[in-house]
Design goal:
The complex is a heterodimer of chains A (351) and B (575).
Chain A: E1 2-5, E2 8-11, H1 18-24, E3 48-51, E4 58-59, E5 70-72, H2 76-91, H3 107-115, E6 131-132, E7 138-141, H4 150-158, E8 164-167, E9 174-177, H5 193-197, E10 203-205, E11 217-223, E12 232-238, E13 244-249, H6 262-266, E14 281-284, E15 287-290, H7 293-311, E16 318-320, H8 326-340, E17 345-347
Parallel strand pairs in A: 1-5, 16-17
Antiparallel strand pairs in A: 1-2, 3-4, 3-5, 6-7, 7-10, 8-9, 11-12, 12-13, 14-15
Helix pairs in contact in A: 2-3
Chain B: H1 4-16, H2 24-34, H3 41-51, H4 55-64, E1 77-82, H5 85-89, H6 92-103, E2 116-121, E3 133-135, E4 138-140, H7 145-156, E5 168-171, H8 188-193, H9 198-204, H10 208-218, H11 230-235, E6 246-251, H12 261-267, H13 269-283, E7 287-292, H14 297-312, E8 320-325, H15 335-342, E9 366-370, H16 371-383, H17 385-388, E10 392-393, E11 396-397, E12 399-406, E13 412-417, E14 420-421, H18 422-428, E15 436-440, E16 449-450, E17 458-459, H19 461-466, E18 475-480, H20 485-499, H21 505-522, H22 528-541, H23 551-565, H24 567-571
Parallel strand pairs in B: 1-2, 5-13, 6-7, 6-9, 7-8, 12-18
Antiparallel strand pairs in B: 1-3, 3-4, 10-11, 12-13, 14-17, 15-16, 15-18
The chains are: A alpha+beta (351), B alpha/beta (575).
Amino acid sequence: MQIMINGNRMEAKEGQTVLQAALANGVYIPHLCYHEKVGAAGKCRACVVEIDGMRGLQTSCSVLAKEGMVVNTQTETALQAQRLVIDLMLSTGKHDCLACEQNGHCELQDAAYFLGIERPSILYADIDREIDTTSEFVHVDRNKCISCGRCVAACNGTVVNQVIDFGMRGHSTEIVFNTNKKMADSTCVQCGECSQICPVGALIDKNSIGKGRIWELDKVSSVCPYCGVGCKLELYVDRKTNKIVKVEGAEDGPTNDGMLCIKGRYGYDFVGHPDRLKTPLIKENGQFREATWDEAIDLVVSKFSAIKEKYGPDSIMALSSAKVTNEENYTFQKLVRTGFQTNNVDHCARL
Amino acid sequence: MVDQNLEKKILELKNKYPRKESALMPALMLAQKANSNYLSEEDIEKVSAIIGVPPGKSYGVTTYYSMYNVLGKVGKYHLQVDTNIPATLMGALEIVKHLEKRLGIKAGETTPDGLFTLSTVECLGSCGTCPVIQVNDTYYENMTPEKVDQLLESLKKGVYPERAVEYNYGTACNVLLKNRGAKDATSIATYQANGGYKALDKALKMEPQAIIDEVKNAGIRGRGGAGFPAGVKWGFLAKNTGKPVYLVCNADEGEPGTFKDRQIMEYDPHLLVEGMAISARALGAKLAFIYIRGEFGWIADILEKAIAEAKADGKLADLDIIVHRGAGAYVCGEETALIESIEGKRGQPRMKPPFPAVEGLYGCPTIVNNVETLASVPFVVEHGADAFKKWGRENNYGFKLFGVSGAVNKPGVYEYPMGVSFKELIAAAGGYKGKVKAAIVGGLSTPILKVEELETLKMDYTSCEEHGTALGSGGVMVIGEEFSIPEIALRTIQFYAHESCGKCAPCAQGSHTVVLILKKLLAGHGEPKDLEILERIVNTINVVGSTLCPTGQAYAAPVKAMVEKFRGEFEALIK
């Protein structure tokens, strides 16, 4: 179908909201509570627009596009409302972009940039909320929280851990963990979904703090090495040192929809660890020595061949791992059946 | 402490509702009562486990509603003084000062012996009988310093004094206040002796659609404040969905200046029950709810008694009515927030669409109507739409309750035809008390009118609109000459900032910021840019859709009007 946005005819798909259609056509409308994974909430009111035939302002995140709809995202009334929302959020929180970890990766900053808000101008509130640094992996700074509710929706609806909720009311509203416990004392399992979905610097990965700004990092797609689910990852790698400083779940990951567990998201320190094996080791006289792959494989082949020769193929049994991919498991059983010539092959996930 | 006995009661509550989560709020209230009016973390966790909801959800609920005491213990007697606008206009601040002096504590503190906690609270729905003090669950109205002394002496001895309330009321229509003053007015015997339940008998013989048509033809507009035609709303009900239909009565009367619905519920509960029975038949609802604000605990008891009486008398053969008590949240007067609250959640508005008539309570088609609207239905059905339309004019038909408070000699509730002149209404309320400078005529969320603007005002939707305000809930607050409008504006916005649900950013942060700006002005530190920023906020939020629900406009419109009409008083505060 076709709709008009800001005087331009644009293509929209059935079931798309006005915001989705606008974004798909390269028209930015500030939006903070909407995320494709948790859907529209109508909470932040930053995405308000005017639509012909509809009264007042409409949240573009919730109105479905209709054939022939005439949308204006930049009328003075809409812009004034958008600006007020962003200005109030900046003014009633501590969003110090210069030192904030999210600088360059912050949706509130994007909105302020778009609307030309250089400095907050409604400075009356005195905000001083305690920062919760108790948990191992997530840094919680409620001074930067804009109560968009994405983390609450994600914790309850996406990963269904049911830890985060809203407590208090009005401008005192804040996110709470269980019955307002510190994050470390709560039932949080540190999956980090909240940190990934947070549009600002309120929930951030603790281990990444100070390790580099977003523009200094290269984004590298990969697959999680921990288990057979095969979650798709985005590694953020420091260009200069070639070190991973942060991991996010890829939102287009077919098996994980952006979600990760504690290991996949935060257990990447082994990658650059000095104790990590870089070559095969062969034990001789009770001591390991470094070897080449050819040397190691030759040794393994000769040892297995000798066993097979002496005791027969069925004297060998092989067990593969759920941590590797289906393809690797397939190759492994092929090796065992055709190379070792035994059907004694199994998989740890069957235990 | 949640002991076995209490656990049993909570399990019973769970079975009372179609969904277990609805039992959460009443269960938490039971736990609080069992623990000296305090909810501990352990209580919350235990109740959550029994109901089967995550503890975070319950914590969110307890800290959302003002009647749960989670953040601190309170004394044996929690003295809560309403200091909202009508109360302020009628001397509540002197009562607070007197209590502070007598108890030797400030508001928000507890006496060292743990006997009294003093709090100032927002509107208690007793605007006609201010000043009012709520002691735990009991209201003491029309308070004076002498009565406060007697109250304290009695409480020290462990005795709640008898509630003695003298209300002013009057009726020119004899419908909604017909049974006021009758002996045993709340009993079914009295109600029936005065002709009650005849409309229900008639309705039971009518086709449901015929009832809907009659209500539609009467053109009765919703009496809660928004004024949407009730019959049209009923017409939106989704049909043949295979889901149950629910009727919900909105008895969360919380708009400051409004104290009309309680008159019906407290003195003529069967009128509401009959109205609900007829409406439920029209809509095909087998289960109905009355969502009543938590502070009106004794009125909820009256309603439950009336429902039991009607049930025993065979009047509710095909209908169950559950009285569900709120726990202190103005926003629950908004219909989707009210539905969320019945579902055991933080009472915050939903996005619309879907509208409740399509997807409301428990995702089922639901009609939410105000008490006064439902109480008007028996008349419409018994006497017909034309009889109803004898009062008022097009778009403004029927009778209406008006609550008058503030600077009048006989504050109270008066039943008049729609379109009664403001002057006549004030005359019924005993005339102005002293010199008057302005009035707010439709509840606190409607724009203020200067005294000269009131001269030509008629109390109906059209005339109010022509005068730049709204009829709202018909709560009239008359402001005496001695009051400063910036101070009234501050009390207004403090109420909305306190009650803003916090779901949408501009309402929560905007209201709080306006409070801070007005405080700065009134403290004598005002700068010209402060007033500019204040106007920028209220002008922007006054646009429909800038906030999730009408609460944003509910504070933007009145504050905007106060600044525009009394600019001199605001500018005088700027250096």
